[in-house]
Amino acid sequence: MNNYSRRNFLKSGITGLAMVFGGELILRSDANPTESSGTYTDYLAYLEKGQTDNTNNQNEWAPTEDNILGPFYREGSPFRAKISPPLSDGTVLLISGRVWGYDTRKPLRNAIIDIWHADKHGQYDTNSIVAPGQKVTYRNRARLITDENGYYEYETIHPGPYQLSPGIWRPNHIHYLVRHPEYKDLVTQLFFKGDPHQETDRFIKDSLIIDLDRVEVGNTHYEKGVFDIVIERKE
Fold first, then answer.
1. What span, in angstroms and rounded, lies between the C-alpha atoms of 74 and 143?
2. Phi, psi at residue 146, to the nearest 5°?
3. φ, ψ for residue 57 (rounded to 5)?
4. Helix, strand or coil for residue 207?
């Protein structure tokens, strides 16, 4: 498979483990069976562990703190797990987590999460004027739906900071709007440990700061982190 180049893959229109023989698609002779990722019992144990270890930097079980909506929210973002456009400038960032009910301590399925953030240079897509009749691209923004285990995951790029006024900067952050029909809407933001602009940001909250792991892949790398969210039931 090392000699099976990406260009040949795109030209053939078949998967890397397949080949065409006699006009039929067959599995390559050097393909190995897919390895098991664990048993169903392992999976249940994982979920049980998650229900007792599901907060970020909070020492006690509590609803996720809110934060400002900001001026850059836009309705109607598309549902997709890739937030940034393909080949966007910046470090690839993978964020995952679960949405939990504060009252039940159980994961919430079908919660809708709006995600939006600035690009590497601190620019939102709303900074560009959309001409009449021009299609809105929703760059660096999307919506997600949690699965039956309350899980969500998305890929984007690490957003950049931007300056509000002389000496005043907003640190790297990602906006969240979390909604569920039985729970209160939550508007919040996600921040990353080690950002020097957090020291002067008036909106920062320690419980919303997470650690990021650096993952090496060949000659490049990406970052990944976990951000779990706890929301309150409607009264």
1. 11
2. -70, 145
3. -110, 10
4. helix
Calculated CA dihedral for residues 139, 141, 145, 151, nearest 10 degrees:
110
Measure the CA dihedral 176/133/85/224, to 10°: 0
Per-residue pLDDT at 107: 95
Structural domain includes residue 76 = yes
Structure tokens at 101: 């009910």
How many helices (H) and strands (E) the chain has is answered by: 2, 14
Determine, yes or no, domain membership for 74: yes
Residue 79 is classified by DSSP as B
The answer to whether position 123 is within a domain reads yes
| Residue 70's CATH number | 2.60.130.10
d(CA 158, CA 78): 20
What residues pair up with 214 in beta bridges, in sequence order? Answer: 223
Six token digits for residue 47 = 């979920």
* Entry pTM: 0.74
Q: Tell me, what's the pLDDT at 6?
A: 42
Q: If the chain, 235 residues long, is cut into consecutive pieces of 10 residues, what is the mean pLDDT of each piece?
A: 41 54 71 61 57 50 93 93 94 96 94 97 77 70 96 97 89 97 97 94 94 93 96 93
3-state secondary structure 109-147: CCCEEEEECCCCCCCCHHHCCCCCCCCCCCCCEEEEECC
